[in-house]
Amino acid sequence: MSRFLSSRFSSLAAYVPGEQPQDRQYVKLNTNESPFPPSPEVLAAVNAAEAERLNLYPDPECTRLRKKLAALYQVEEDNIFLSNGSDEILNFAFMAFCDKSRPVAFPAISYGFYPVFAQLHQLPYTPIPLREDFTIAVEDYRNIRHNIVLANPNAPTGLALSRAEIEEILRANPDHVVLIDEAYVDFGAESCVPLIGRYENLLVCQTFSKSRSMAGARLGFAIAGAPLIADLNRIKYATNPYNINRLTLAAGEAAVDSNGYYMANCRTIMENRAYTVDRLSKLGFETLPSQANFIFTRCPKLSGGALYAALKERGVLVRHWDKPEISDYLRITIGSREQMDILLEQIQEILKEV
Ligand code: PMP
Question: Fewer beta carbons under 10 A from the terminal one: N or C of the chain?
Fold first, then answer.
């Protein structure tokens, strides 16, 4: 820290992203990326002709992409907001809707960026404990006089609430924004997008990073009533109007056009998930029922930290947190069948040595 850093940030603990090692080729199951490449249409769209136009600013309104997403999700164009990864929506939403008199609440075990954004913007926040089985207790979110942020499915557990349960939370908090972070919704959970016209306090965010194989392009989107979208735009135009670059916009448009390709990949991931959970259970692992492209699983014979380290040594990267409530667990991204077979083989080898 330099002596020039504002005292506002002197105690800020930044988000620690999963490792992105550049030294060695790992079977990379640690940051929930897709094992599948972008669709052929996306590869064609990010072509030399588009690259040649990089001297020009991109369309700040993302007109074509908003139109395509509105058609896909059966909403209006003014219900859509595009962002540089869905992390940016979270950042803008914390800025736009929370303050000292409107604190924010989220589950105590959830996406690690939520408390970071709260701290960054110096907002009061309340982490709400999960039940012992890691489920979210809907009754804990009734009339709590907070804005609410819920990842659905939750991360890192993979457990999802039903749309009806989220509707209860929306109804119980009509004067507060309820942000549903649907980063992983395409892998089996119920989306809240169909509720958009009915709840003015609902803000849904999704990403192209997981189900649409575009983590490297940084593209996310929010769907909400037009007034909430206008508020997000107010922050965007005060922060970074050209938040989506030209190549990413072109890639995003082509990705929406090839939606069938991505939804088929999601089905493959769900099959690979069932296969992996089944094989792990035969090795004695306990795995939470996931509706995401990752699983949260516990080995009966080894601590989470020990298994993480042993797998890394063998070239398989997974995610582990040193927090007491979850330190027994690993979060493992579901990749291709070949990647899962390597993981399972290495786990078997490690267990032989225990
Ligand atoms: N929400 C959740 C729950 C996530 O796990 C992630 C990925 N780390 C994000 C949002 C952000 O993803 P991105 O910025 O790549 O869209």
Answer: N
Any idea what the Cα angle at residue 326 is, between residues 321 and 332, rounded to 5°? 60
Do 86 and 172 touch, CB atoms closer than 8 A? Answer: no
Average pLDDT over residues 108-131: 98
Cβ–Cβ under 8 Å, residues 198 and 164: no
Q: Which atom of ligand 1 is nearest to the CA of 31?
A: 8
| Torsion region of 94: left, alpha or beta (phi above 0 gives left; psi -120 to 50 gives alpha) | alpha
Q: Kindly give the distance from the C-alpha atom of residue 18 to the centroid of ligand 1, in angstroms, as a whole number.
A: 11
Angle subtended at Cα 240 by Cα 228 and Cα 118, rounded to the nearest 5 degrees:
60
CA of 14 to the centre of ligand 1 (A): 15
pTM: 0.97
Residue 130 — φ and ψ, nearest 5°? -80, 165
**Residue range 302-331, pLDDT digits in tens:** 999 999 999 999 999 999 999 999 999 999
Note the pLDDT tens digit of each residue in 11-60: 999 998 888 988 889 999 999 999 999 999 999 999 988 999 999 999 99
Which residue from 20, 86, 136, 212 has its CB within 8 A of the most atoms of ligand 1, so it is best to mutate?
86
User: What gap in Å lies between CA 334 and CA 121, rounded to an integer?
Assistant: 34
Compute, in angstroms, the gap from residue 234 CA to the centroid of ligand 1: 22
Contact assessment for residue 66 and residue 80, using Cβ atoms and an 8 Å cutoff: yes
Instruction: Give yes or no for residue 156 having a pLDDT over 90.
Output: yes
Ligand 1, CB cutoff 6 Å, lining residues: 85-87, 111, 151, 155, 181, 183, 207, 209, 215, 220
Q: Which of 65, 6, 120, 24 is nearest to 316 (CA)?
A: 24
Shortest CA distance to 66 belongs to which of 58, 77, 75, 74?
77
Per DSSP, what are the bridge partners of residue 150? 180
Contact 234, 96 (CB under 8 A): yes
